[in-house]
Amino acid sequence: MMDLFQMPISNISGVSNARLTYFQKLGIFSVGDMLYFFPKSYENRMNQKCVANLSDEETATVTVRILDVSSRRVRQNLTLISAMAEDETGTLKITFFNQKYLINQLKVGQEITVFGKVSRRIGYFEMTNPAIQKAVARGDFSENYIPKYPLTKGLTQGVMQKVAHGCLLVAKEHLQETLSFDIRKKYHLCELLYALENIHFPTGEEELASAKKRLVFEELFYLMLGLGKLKLKQKKAAGPKLVNYKIAEEFAKQLPFPLTDAQKRVTREICYDFKQGYQMNRLVQGDVGSGKTMVAAMAMLICAQSGYQAVLMAPTEILARQHFEGLKPYFDAFGVSVELLVSSMKKKEKTAVQNGLHTGEISLVIGTHALIYDTVQFQKLGLVITDEQHRFGVKARAELTKKGENPHCLVMTATPIPRTLALIIYGDLDVSVIDELPKGRIPVVTRIASETQRELVYSFVSKELAKKNQAFVVCPLIEESEALDAENAIRVQEELQTRYLKEYRIGLLHGKMKADEKDAVMNQFASGEYDVLVSTTVVEVGVNVPNATVMVIENAERFGLASLHQLRGRVGRGQKKSYCFLNLADVKAKKRLEIMEKTTDGFQISEFDLKHRGPGEFFGTRQHGLPSMRLSNLTYSMETVRLAKEAAETVLSEDCDLVLPKNKKIRTSVEKMFSENEFVSQL
Ligand code: ADP
Ligand code: MG
Fold first, then answer.
1. Are the CB atoms for 635 and 613 separated by under 8 Å?
2. Ligand 1, closest atom to CA 542?
3. How far is the CA of 420 from the centre of ligand 2 (A)?
4. What is the position in ligand 1's atom list of the atom closest to the CA of 293?
5. CA distances from 643 to 187, 194, 454 (A)
6. What angle do CA 285, 290, 291 make, to 5 degrees?
7. Which fold has domain 246-434?
8. Domain assignments of the chain as residue spans, ordered by start
9. Which residue's CA is the closest to the ligand 1 atom numbered 23?
């Protein structure tokens, strides 16, 4: 049997050499990739109506007879074709912009079926640029639901549909079922081929639902199997016994503020793990600003006091420096040596730190990825802490742990995961939650602003800047391309510089810049050389710029709630009252985003998300350090997650290494899923 993931997409007609790169840009290299590249939505052409029953703003299909066609050149580049048409019940005006070729296709007296959004006018309805039925050849697949794929420049829906269709024909011949009959029967799952056909070209709502159910289940099943295997491995290891936790109390006394109860509780949980003699694997979840760093610091001190070394790894150099500079005075006070290790340091400095770590002269080290190089060796590593874990993936952490003998692991994340979900995903991995912010924090005032209020928003920003405060302006990632993101951010910067915030210094940060360029701009902003920082979502990571009191998020409707919450956490870090504006280009999103105005509690927001959008929203954010999920854009219930976990546990209880012949296929699938994400070394 053929592996469809090995068959190049260029075998399919419609994928010319010229188009190949566009497909690759979407991550589609093989027929298998295309089969798993799912539509983001469908046009439902089942909603057949007669004209009289149409309502304003709805999307519907009607079949009408053409009464009259006219064409008019409005401007140099704009031709307008309008057709008056009717059925027995009413009149429909159809307008097309710049589709001159249609003039030869629309004939008076002809019946056509059009699909599109309806506007009510006085005495008639209108559709602008509707789709005309049978525009694309889809052969023997359904035409009731027309798939709409995520696109990139150079590809059209027509091409995608044709290629998807071609791939399904190949699948008919060569696709292998991946789930056993038993599992499909037990969980009422349809066959793979049927599922793929119906996810691309559904024959109806129910068929689409059953396709999604099967595909989502399968993906979660592999995820749970992979995680389950990881957990089974982790459980056994013995770890260093660290018992000198009195020092944490001493440390707390040195702080200019009392620890919150949540910080104390989590520290106790860590101390408890430390003395068990087993390797700790603990996730500390705490909202932005909840004070995770102090908890990490206490764990590091306990470790040093017990004669072991500890390492704290941050995702960016600027964060590492911030941690280092913030903590060094405290560590110094206890006579515990701490050093910084980041790539930009001089070779000589780095070598000195490496030597110190190797001999054990240095107890604690704070740094970035530079810590995982082979040249970094520890004398006696007892604790590995990673900050904002999702930025690393599991592999970087694994590299670090290998530098010691089963050192304890502490992972700190600001992504609040709803408890129900955390329990399922992390299972026996221990989760601590810092569910309390330090007293006296002033919640960030959040306001949703429409397009027409943009000017007001920026005049507010300029008042804040006049008070010597700073502002973040965040532009969304544009699905289609990184280049567009950059362009978009550049455009916003120009607009602000020439229009709204003329007299201020505006820095720019986007994904096309190199890591050190980004760090440099970020540093300049942090040190006040810029008043405003326009950026794509790269500021998400926990940078501390207490002087920033305003954040404007452009096109906020493009973000998930979790991301918005993370972003917003960049302001309100100082003593001053802070503001966050969610600028909407699409007012329809207002309802979904309203919760942002109501609460600043990340857990509440994530619970809300889980309830309203399902766990797929969470799996889609990539903030969890889990493998990427193809189905993250589909909605499904927690129940599906639970069932997939149950199925995985059943399989693992019988065959924990997936070595039985009957589990061969699922083993391959699990390995594939996890290998794409650096997990493989762990499995
Ligand atoms: P995060 O959890 O987002 O990493 P940080 O550890 O960076 O948060 O802490 C945010 C700020 O709060 C820091 O300036 C820190 O010094 C301060 N902080 C931490 N704990 C407390 C506390 N118990 N009371 C008051 N301020 C605190
Ligand atoms: Mg932090």
1. yes
2. 3
3. 24
4. 6
5. 8, 21, 46
6. 100
7. Rossmann fold (3.40.50)
8. 9-43+148-216, 47-140, 246-434, 445-599
9. 259
Identify the DSSP state of 499. Answer: I
**Beta strands of 547-628 (E only): which ranges?**
548-553, 579-583
Give the E-state strand segments of 322-424 in sequence order: 338-341, 364-367, 381-387, 408-413
The residue whose CA is least distant from atom 25 of ligand 1 is 438
The Cβ of residue 151 has, within 10 Å, a number of other Cβ atoms equal to 16
β-bridge partners, 330: none
Q: Which atom of ligand 1 is nearest to the CA of 259?
A: 23
Residue nearest to atom 4 of ligand 1 (CA): 292
Q: Which residues form ligand 1's pocket by a CB distance below 6 Å?
A: 257, 259-260, 263, 286, 288-294, 414, 438, 542
> Which pLDDT value is given to residue 539?
52
Report how far ligand 2's centroid is from the alpha carbon of 424 (Å): 25
| Gap from CA of 293 to ligand 2 centroid (Å) | 6
Task: Report the C-alpha gap between 472 and 647 in whole angstroms.
Answer: 46
Q: How close is the Cα of 292 to the center of ligand 1, in Å? A: 7
Number of the ligand 1 atom closest to the C-alpha atom of 434: 2
Do the domains 246-434 and 445-599 sit in the same CATH topology, yes or no?
A: yes
Please name every residue paired with 411 in a beta bridge, in sequence order, or none if there are none: 283, 386
Name the residue type at position 575.
Answer: Q
Question: 185 C-alpha vs ligand 2 centroid, how far in Å?
Answer: 46
Structure tokens given for 591: 């309802």
Q: 44 has which bridge partners?
A: 145
- Tell me the CA–centroid distance for residue 293 and ligand 1, in Å: 7
Q: Which residue has the CA at smallest separation from atom 10 of ligand 1?
A: 289
Q: Give me the DSSP letters along 615-639.
A: HHHHHHS--S-SPP-GGGGS---HH
Residue 479 has a pLDDT of 52
CA-based torsion, 555, 636, 617, 220: positive or negative: negative
Task: Give me the pLDDT at residue 379, please.
Answer: 96
pTM higher than the cut 0.70: no
Q: How far is the CA of 586 from the centre of ligand 1 (A)?
A: 36
Give the residues of the chain that fall short of pLDDT 50.
134-140, 480, 678-683
pLDDT the model gives residue 291: 93
- For residue 277, what are its two tokens? 């003699």
What is the structure's pLDDT at 634?
65
CATH code for the structural domain at 445-599: 3.40.50.300
- How far apart CA 365 and CA 374 sit, in angstroms, is 15
Q: Which ligand is nearest to the CA of 266?
A: 1
Ligand nearest to the CA of 293: 1
Report the CATH architecture of 47-140.
Beta Barrel (2.40)
Tokens of 532: 């405003």
